[in-house]
């Protein structure tokens, strides 16, 4: 006989699929014991660089019950962003996740729809939606709920679909049927470690965020240190190297989310076009894009750093 926990979990997973999510896994809302010392060590090593926000809400990052009163379940969801086509070969590069509209808005709308569905179908359920901007260790929760394992490049990897997807959560105050973690399938592979242009993967499963090209091109507000000249492999916003070389990403399939369709100019621009980009063109191409995070001046700084 199917109990309510199983029935509700099945309902949530079916609706998440209907909303376009790649997959959905559920885990018990509890303290992340294994991650606590890892996060502490990572911060103590200053691997967060100038991302001081990573030091905030340490306890909340490790315990979802501090984010939602009476939290019992963490529902983790993946949304594919792998594009149909990529940029012109003779171009400064943008991370694939930023090709289309800003994922925060796209996913948040889907999550709100899912939460509304849960409240309509199950009744009085209290919960919150999270997309990357709150103190939630999303990769840890996704791994706990069986959606993949955290690879040597510190990204969540999944056997059948690779790693080109966003991770989001719903934290709910009802008990559900929980999924089991999967096993690590990195084996002896070191492709990501060997390929990282700035050697940011300092040991298997540990990334020094302050050496990552994504950090320099998005998070860092100061000038990019000269020691990294000619080491950026033409990345002007983000970096996909450790994902592009991962053998599991040969299974990536193009997404079917209309909001992630890139502006044609983004795909067709060459280096000269980017070097001559004006503020108006920047606003047009990246109207609703995550690239706006670095602002026009930030993108120009990055291009100049690559060009010199």
Automatic annotation (TrEMBL):
The keyword Iron-sulfur applies. The keyword 4Fe-4S applies. Its EC number is 1.17.99.6. Cob(II)alamin binds at residues 61, 132, 153, 156, 167, 214, 239-240. The active site is at residue 132. It comes from Flavobacterium haoranii. TRNA binds at residue 221. Catalyzes the conversion of epoxyqueuosine (oQ) to queuosine (Q), which is a hypermodified base found in the wobble positions of tRNA(Asp), tRNA(Asn), tRNA(His) and tRNA(Tyr). [4Fe-4S] cluster 1 binds at residues 186, 189, 192, 246. GO terms for cellular component: cytoplasm. It is found in: Cytoplasm. This is Epoxyqueuosine reductase. Pathway: tRNA modification; tRNA-queuosine biosynthesis. It comes from the Bacteria. Belongs to the QueG family. It is an enzyme of class 1 (oxidoreductase). Residues 174-206 form the 4Fe-4S ferredoxin-type domain.
